[in-house]
Amino acid sequence: MVVKKRVKWNRTYLYIGVIFVIALAVWLFSDLSQKRELDMQLLAQVGITDEEAQDLAGQAFFRRRARRYIPAACYDGDGGFNIAQRGSMAFFPGGYSYRPYYFYDSCVSTNQLREYECARPYNPTTVTCANQCTNGACVVRCGDGVKEGTEQCDDGNTADGDGCSYICAIEPFCGDSAVNQPNEECDDGNQVDSDVCSNTCVAATCSDNIQNQDELNVDCGGICSKCSFKIHNVDITGWGYKEKGGLGFNLHIDVEYLGPMPTGDYALSFPVKIAVPNVQSSIEPYFTVSKTPGDGIFSESSLRLTRIFTFDNPMPLLEAYSGAQLPLSIKILENTNPTSRNYITSEPIGTTLFEKSYSLAKTPVPENKIYTIGVVQVVPPGLDISTLDICLDHTPAMQSNGLQGYEPFGVYPAGTCPTTSMNPGTGVIYRSVIRTHNFKEIFFSQNPFTSIPDVRMSSYLPSRLGDVNIYSLLSIGSFWENLLAKHGLTNRITTLGINPKFNVIVLPPIERVNTLTSSDHGAVKTFFDDAAASAHLDLSTYDFTMYVQYYDGAPNLDHFGRGFAANTKSYIPIELQVSSVVVPNSAYLTIVHEMGHQLFSLSDLYVGFGLQSPKGVPNPDLSRLPLKQGCIMGKSFGYKQTTPSSIQAYTSYLGSSYDTELNTFVQTLEPFSTVDPENYVLCADDIVGIRGDFENLQCKLSDFYTNKCHDCSSGTCEPCTSLNYLKCTLKQP
User: Contact 678/626 with Cβ under 8 angstroms?
Assistant: First the structure.
């Protein structure tokens, strides 16, 4: 019995063992099948064929067992990320030397490539080919402008000699910062054509037809000796004897500026020799015009330059020619002035510009000639100048502070002066007391000025109350006549003759929609020319033309906002709803200032917001600043020195800044004196310009500015200022 039980239990254990082995085998087979299926799916996803997958998946079990013994290895047939060649990457995850996983680069669409590399064995990169994808690689075409595959470069062509060869290999080229080709004179590593080395690696010259180096125009200016000013015509007028016996004339040179308009401060300067054969008495002046673009000298490509020249001692001429015809020639000289070498004419040195004979008999200079100034007015459609009101108000702030007088706040259509203002904090509306004056009756008065009483301006530091004289537009001619007389220019030669007179003719307003959004000179001229043409105006009968545009000052409106002059024409914007436009004389002072450019080709005497020192003030003794008079071409009073070459400009509008010294100075002035045209004079530079660059030979400008002159004409010597400049003589050592 015992034996039988033992056999029975042995058989039981045997059955259990067999069942366990069978179960274990089933489990192992199932696990391997699942892993095999997963491996096959993975291999299929990366582009391995079914046959390859069947073979490779069978090795997975052995590789997994041995990963801890052998490190992973990877071999890439195309060298890694190489889209131009189909790669066959073999990846050993770890194990004995069994067969690896194979991954093949493959096309997933007509222009997309799945690219394998050892850095990312299970995560291929999808690449979009520039051309197309074929046989597991992008088709690379040298010359298509796309750098692909083994290309070192691709510049879009298959030409040699441009830095990228016909097989897309880098080659020496202009711009690689090395002079390494036979035709290279230089190589500065860029493709900029405006520096010392062109974009073809040729050194810049003054005859390469390129604006480079420090040239101000093509082959003109900077280190280049010639400029883009071409002389078209030379003429002489006003030949005759002058007030002190000299023999003089007006020289006119018509030039054309051939390049783009300059944008900074520029000067045109070239020397000429005015000579008479067989006579030593010759003139060798620098024929110079110094202007800024805003002054109008460069606002047109064609310019007429005018200067007066004088043979101070005509006796050698009379002796040599005994009253016969005097031959005169004008030739270009070499410009030796280092400050003006940028602006000499393009004509070669020695070129004869002019030859003509003149009589030595005395010929009269124009005297008391009346020059007509036509004023063209342009207004917005529907605006009637005759019904405009100059508005002044007694503000709530003035009322609460017990102040007297009325503040100007612009020009508005009749009956529309703003009468209320609101405190934004409290919402309380305040009502102003309004006083009005008809704009036309004052601005076009037959009287030189109209006095308006009890005017106060809070922006005038400190707030001053007084009467202000508002000047009429019709008086601009008499203003300049009086200015000439005030400086002793009566019966003296000027560029407009002796004692010129000016007749102002105001033309009827032209209604025109404003299309101006800036002060661009070309656009402003076209606007006014079109307006005059639409009104069929014949402006050829006027010696000078002034164009005026009236407009309201809508907030943030882009508009023509800065006056300028160009030759015989001036252009003036008048913004009606600005407080100072008429009261106190802002528009008037702008007009007579631009007339200085227009009538006599005078230069501005300010730089930014400062006056030129010492040219911008009538008294060269700067220790006497501040002055109670200002120069009209500076359009402000000199206050105090700020730099060696500039003086802080002083006007009636000082904003919120407070200066104790300035406040003390203001107290010494009559109210509104700085906006009264009577307090504006000529500077010494202006006087010389009006006389055609003819200085007072007894006190040249260089002596005047260094306080070396005085006026002893009355028996008592007085300091020399621009008001008595023509009477000044050098002080004795």
Answer: no
